[in-house]
């Protein structure tokens, strides 16, 4: 990171944070970067490709000689590419984390946190992320603690972020996540954060979904549907858009099966898919009992 003067990666980083992944990739040719900044640039570009589901490209392009943060990103791509790769990817992460020379690398710890959060092993995730050190690590801590239903601890992490930089995009996002988790009058505050983003930045699926979830919490399902269909136009395979459309459609009394089927195809591991499968099994068992 740049010590003084303008941050050469600010625009790239911000595009990544708001979910403008293609824009991050397209605008990644930043001149005169230091070696550390060049590695960070590459990690952001490859993580953008991962967000666009281009896992194989990342796996193919990062070779064994690449820096530790890039090796970690490759393991994330491997982990997400196929359920068959999960054990190998997690073993690879443990190997890197166990090396005293590189185990404390912030990108490595971040990727470990992301992977173990996917595994729903939140205690293991926090073991690597809890020390913080970067805004992304603090933001991930907020997400993990919300998933653990510990909004009190999430708020402490958010306060740390606010002390570092209140207007930082990740601080604002973390504030919106926490407001949604707390609920009640805080939902309107979360909506205003996403509204502010939509006025400042290009509209992305991440921003549209954020606004839509706020609308659903406030009972505005028609507005939520409009936002989600706009998000679907931007990315027809985005799991969060499809999952939110399933929920929104059910509330509106509209058919949701097609969205659920698309979600099963694009993201078979998604929580909503697993819940639906579990409900179907329970229903089938109940029918068999009656029969």
Automatic annotation (TrEMBL):
Write the record's keywords in alphabetical order, separated by commas. Cytoplasm, Cytoplasmic vesicle, ER-Golgi transport, Golgi apparatus, Membrane, Protein transport, Transport
Q: Does the keyword Protein transport apply?
A: yes
In terms of Gene3D superfamilies, this protein maps to:
Tetratricopeptide repeat domain (1.25.40.10)
Membrane topology reported for the UniProt record: Peripheral membrane protein
Cellular component per GO, a single term: Golgi membrane
Q: Where in the cell is it found?
A: Cytoplasmic vesicle, COPI-coated vesicle membrane; Golgi apparatus membrane
Where does this protein chiefly localize?
membrane
GO MF entry, a single one: structural molecule activity
What's any GO biological process attached to this entry? Answer: protein transport
The UniProt subunit note reads as follows: Oligomeric complex that consists of at least the alpha, beta, beta', gamma, delta, epsilon and zeta subunits.
Q: Which family does it belong to?
A: Belongs to the COPE family.
Known function: The coatomer is a cytosolic protein complex that binds to dilysine motifs and reversibly associates with Golgi non-clathrin-coated vesicles, which further mediate biosynthetic protein transport from the ER, via the Golgi up to the trans Golgi network. The coatomer complex is required for budding from Golgi membranes, and is essential for the retrograde Golgi-to-ER transport of dilysine-tagged proteins.
Q: By what name is this protein known?
A: Coatomer subunit epsilon
Species in which this protein is naturally found: Solanum tuberosum (Potato)
């Amino acid at each position: 990171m740049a010590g003084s003067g303008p941050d050469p990666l600010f625009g790239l980083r911000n595009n990544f944070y708001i979910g403008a992944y293609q824009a991050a990739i397209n605008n990644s040719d930043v001149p005169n970067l230091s070696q550390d900044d060049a590695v960070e640039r590459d990690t952001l570009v490859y993580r953008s490709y991962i967000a666009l589901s281009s896992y194989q490209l990342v796996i193919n392009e990062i070779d064994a000689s690449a820096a530790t943060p890039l090796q970690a990103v490759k393991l994330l791509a491997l982990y997400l590419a196929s359920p068959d790769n999960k054990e190998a990817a997690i073993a690879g992460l443990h190997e890197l984390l166990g090396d005293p020379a590189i185990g404390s690398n912030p990108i490595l710890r971040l990727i470990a946190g992301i992977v173990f959060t996917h595994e729903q092993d939140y205690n293991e995730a926090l073991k690597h992320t809890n020390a913080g050190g970067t805004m992304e690590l603090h933001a991930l801590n907020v997400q993990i603690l919300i998933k653990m239903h510990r909004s009190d601890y999430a708020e402490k992490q958010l306060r740390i972020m606010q002390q570092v930089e209140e207007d930082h995009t990740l601080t604002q996002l973390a504030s919106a996540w926490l407001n949604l988790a707390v609920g009640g009058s805080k939902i309107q505050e979360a909506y205003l954060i996403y509204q502010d983003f939509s006025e400042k930045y290009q509209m992305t699926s991440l921003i549209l979904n954020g606004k839509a979830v706020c609308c659903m919490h406030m009972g505005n399902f028609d507005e939520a549907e409009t936002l989600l269909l706009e998000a679907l136009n931007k990315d027809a395979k985005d799991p969060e858009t499809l999952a939110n459309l399933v929920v929104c459609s059910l509330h509106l009394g509209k058919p949701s099966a097609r969205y659920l089927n698309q979600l099963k195809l694009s993201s078979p591991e998604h929580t909503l898919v697993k819940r639906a499968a579990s409900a179907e099994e329970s229903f089938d068992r109940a029918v068999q009992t009656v029969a």
